[in-house]
Specification:
Number of strands: 7
Radius of gyration: 23 Å
Number of helices: 16
Strand content: 5-15%
Distance between the termini: 46 Å
Oligomer: single chain
Largest sheet: 7 strands, mixed
CATH architecture of the largest domain: Alpha-Beta Complex
Number of domains: 2
Order of helices and strands: HEHEHEHEHEHEHHEHHHHHHHH
Shape: globular
CATH topology of the largest domain: Spore Coat Polysaccharide Biosynthesis Protein SpsA, Chain A
């Protein structure tokens, strides 16, 4: 084996080893997610608290009126419900929100339109500005693309009967989950997140996070944690760990669902995933050391480190793609190399299957979409790896909200906003060409199985790159 081949195989095996560690952790969450969670107790009708509903909005013409209407019809006593439209918009959304707020105020709803002249602090800044003037002891947060059911507060507020509880998080549902293959794959990933990761951590008593929306915070817990911070792109994950480190407990309301709109095109989806990945690494830089020193059980501290670093497998996947492609092309590996390639593909499929099948849904359809889900993961590897590196080195990037079209079910709406590019399409196309060449060299040597795996993943990378170009034209 040449020096080059040894380096390539070393990188390939090291990255596979790292992915195996994360896969074992994912399987442990699958096991823990099967534990039964206690239901959220009902509200005490004699002691209903004042609730402030916060709706952070930025340039959301398609969905702003919808979320305002949903908040205004929540089943809660009018004298104990305050709604804040936290509007940072710079387009016609501002006038739309003002008109909607005026109309609902005329109907007796306690709703205010708080518009900021700048986006200082982005979403975290808007939430903190609203917190400063809120009268509620509990703060419910809904992003602009959500449509909370009328009984949302009735179904979640009972979780605060324990004075140590600082946050209650509900599960997301999907307004347009069947609109396209892309939204179906997103729904699989999100359903797995809520059914496995959130439920598994909650069932084990470890820290799980507020998802930025469809949850309720105790105002006292936010204050004790230091308020909303804007030094990461995931202010929700950041506040969750700071509150947990301050001693607050969280409740996962697994049976309560708030439907939302999934990104309709690949560019919007990549922008969303980029923000989540970069923000999680920024939180890891900020909070991994305090979490590792926290007075928690050792397994809860370990879970926190896995949680904060849960996007690292994307970087490992990119290394596997680059080094694995070279290893397949060189063909100078050990005799068990073909078996390793096949075992890696099978293991990836089995772990993902266990992850997505834990959530409720059609089993056969879910399994049939696994190859596409794996290909999509490979297609996101370049963009997500860039997010991880930028987050790790501390590069500051703006908070780019995910554009939404107002689509429900299979409907297609007029697209008003375009997602910010993650700037990696050229690198994605280059990687696709590279892997195609590696597959061709492997095929020429008769290494059929590794070549087919290369072709499969190349199809995902190429499809993501081409779809991104079409969506951002």
């Amino acid at each position: 084996m040449t020096v080059l081949a040894a380096i390539v195989w070393g990188l390939y095996l090291a990255a596979l080893g790292g992915l195996a560690v994360f896969a074992l952790h994912r399987l442990s969450l699958v096991v823990r997610a099967r534990r039964r969670l206690p239901p959220v107790p009902p509200c005490d009708p004699a002691a209903l608290p004042v609730v402030t509903v916060q709706l952070p909005i930025f340039n959301e013409q398609a969905v702003a009126a919808r979320v305002i209407a949903a908040a205004c019809v929540l089943d809660w006593p009018r004298d104990r419900l305050e709604i804040q439209v936290l509007d940072d918009s710079t387009d016609a959304t501002r006038a739309l929100c003002a008109a909607e707020v005026a109309a609902w105020r005329a109907r007796g709803v306690d709703i205010v339109h708080l518009h900021r002249a700048d986006r200082r602090g982005w979403k975290a800044g808007a939430l903190d500005a609203g917190r400063a003037v809120a009268r509620g002891t509990l703060h419910a947060v809904f992003d602009a693309d959500f449509v909370p059911p009328p009984d949302f507060l009735r179904a979640t507020i009972g979780g605060f009967a324990d004075p140590r509880v600082g946050m209650v998080q509900a599960r997301w549902a999907h307004l347009n989950g069947d609109a396209s293959l892309l939204t179906r794959l997103q729904a699989m990933l999100l359903d797995g997140h809520f059914a496995v990761e959130q439920r598994g951590r909650a069932g084990a008593g470890a820290c799980f996070n507020f998802n930025g929306t469809a949850g309720v915070w105790r105002a006292e817990a936010i204050a004790a944690a230091g308020g909303w911070h804007a030094d990461t792109l995931t202010e929700d994950l950041d506040l969750s760990y700071r509150a947990a480190l301050a001693g607050w407990r969280f409740v996962y309301a697994a049976d309560v669902r708030a439907p939302a709109e999934l990104p309709a095109d690949i560019a919007a989806f990549k922008a969303q995933q980029f923000r989540w990945a970069k923000g999680s690494i920024e939180c890891a830089r900020k909070l991994a050391a305090p979490a590792a020193r926290a007075p928690w059980r050792w397994r809860h501290r370990l879970e926190a480190l896995f949680h904060l670093g849960h996007n690292l497998p994307y970087l490992l996947t990119l290394i596997v793609l680059v080094a694995g492609g070279a290893a397949i092309a060189l063909g100078a590996g050990p005799s068990w190399a073909p078996a390793l390639h096949a075992a890696s593909a099978v293991t990836t499929a089995l772990v993902l299957a266990a992850f997505v099948l834990t959530s409720d849904g059609p089993r056969l359809r879910t399994l049939a979409r696994l190859p596409a889900l794996i290909a999509l993961t490979a297609g996101l590897a370049v963009s997500q790896s860039r997010a991880i590196v930028l987050g790790a080195v501390g590069t500051v990037t703006p908070f780019e909200r995910t554009p939404k079209d107002g689509a429900i079910g299979r409907a297609r709406a007029r697209r008003r906003y375009r997602a910010a590019s993650t700037g990696v399409v050229t690198a994605e196309l280059t990687l696709a060409v590279y892997l195609t060449a590696c597959a061709g060299l492997a095929m020429g040597r008769g290494a059929i199985t590794p070549a087919l795996i290369c072709v499969w993943l190349t199809a995902g990378i190429g499809a993501v790159a081409v779809a991104t170009l079409r969506a951002t034209r």
